[in-house]
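dumping this here before i forget
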Amino acid sequence: MPSTSSAGMRAAWDRFAKDDPMFHIHCGQRDWDPDEFFATGAEDVNEWMDWIGDRLERGRMLEIGCGLGRMTVAFASEFEQVDGVDISAEMIEQAKALDPPGNVRYRVITGDGLDGIEDSAYDFVGSRAVFQHIPTEIAIASYLKEIARVLRPGGQALLQFNTAPIGIARRIAYALPDPLLPRTSRRYMRCYRRDSGRVRELVADAGLEIEWEHQGSSTFHYFLLRRPASAD
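structure:
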């Protein structure tokens, strides 16, 4: 059964999807042209592939927090099979209606883990601008353990966290009730900062290894992780 926290997150992102999904998914911009919206996803995927290149197995991949498939559809040209998962059923329904490539599959998850996904299923797991919206460390830790479970031994994951220092003004603002804040600063839409050292501890606790980090102590701090090849 979903936790209270994940149920609240699901309800929020279902509302966001019904209101204006592209606005809530990417950069808070209104009135996106769909082609331009998906072009930003292709740009991000190309950047990722440049970073990790030939070291990455291109079989089956999982994208956590796929939304409308902004990046998912671009991953489809890089991997044999791409599975996109999201906590919002409304997002998934809209993603399916956008006629994704034939090697893309979408499914809803509870938000407490990667429920229903078999062990050692993926060569690669990716997530961008998702973990920064999760309020609790407990949920982050659970996802990392689940990522370790669904990666094959030797499989890799590229995950983005917001590890930029948080100023006093933002701390005060986040203590205010949501109606007093700009929409992009409200609960579940706001960015929750994580200490980079604590992220490393949670990664180790999940049984994953850090291959490299990119843009440390920033809003887009990437961790390339690997499940040890000797893992059971």
